[in-house]
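[stage:ingest] chain + small molecule (zinc ion)
[stage:ingest] validated
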Amino acid sequence: MAHGITWAAHPRPYADELLSSWIVRVAHANGLKLQTFCHIEFGEFEIWNRDIDRQAPEWLLQRLAARSGRAFAEVWNMTLAGYESRLYYRRHSNGQQRWILPLQTVARSPKGFGLQYCPACLAADAAPYFRRAWRVALYTFCPLHRILMADRCPGCDSPVALHRLDVGRSDVYGAEPLSLCWNCGFNLRNAPQSPVHEWDCRAFASWRRLLTVIRNERSSRRMIDVGRLDVLHHFCRLLASMPTAFRFLGYVRSRTGQRGPEIERGRFAFEHRPLAERHHLLSLGWWLMGKWPSRVRSAWKSKAIRYNLLLKDFANPPDWYAAAVQDFNRRNLAGHRHSQPGSQPIVPL
Ligand SMILES: [Zn+2]
Ligand SMILES: [Zn+2]
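[stage:predict] done
[stage:export] tokens:
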């Protein structure tokens, strides 16, 4: 394959396909092992030493676009950078990116469980592939199949690592489907399916709607309310990692009757938390945003959460959130309300 011409085989990206999933399929469709393909295309640049779905340099995307005959924008949109201003306001090249699961790749070896999958989606695919939405930390269940996501092989507990699929194989003849575990060969399509317990209809309906928009992000141009996601993120953080969080968590659990898994104490990022913890915290966060702002006001009145914590470390909260929280302030309750009568904040769903 000489540079400057398109590949002999250039499979088109599937709906919401993740860049790394597509690269593996392109290599195999051209009859090459992934490592060989990458060496030809990218030379000494080791694309699997980093989170290529998050940190693909522009020249690499341009080369992929030129060689596949696709528009640069289409290739770029397979990366997690495409979520800028959709799930978060600002993109960081390093450090934790809001809502994006870390891969924690160390010398090509995946240490984290940052690529989730839905066994039912994989089972329904003619050719199994991995979705970009599965890297999103709030995507803890599949809105289509209403089952919890999985983040490891049920056979050997290894994380998903697409780039290791053909390591150690002598050729890629009849390349294995992407749904096989690289370590033990278990077909992830057959992973156990756990139905989501939707214990609050409205909270889960809002959550499901959002996940459906994220899932169909490239076809539907419906706007996601990033400010609302910021509030959800802030609640998840307050419920888990602040010094007084456990009073708040205990209160919300007793109000909702949800026990959930043990939440590990610490100030690490929400995105680093295990799947079960994230799912539980998010469900409580969605519940808190329901009937806005009465549930949060009740929590504050019950002294489960202090007023200042609701605004602490929350840069640029949406106006409807800041106005409601300021209204909790005792001085405001004493007659210095900031809100005008009849100007109830609107919370778009
Ligand atoms: Zn699914
Ligand atoms: Zn395995």
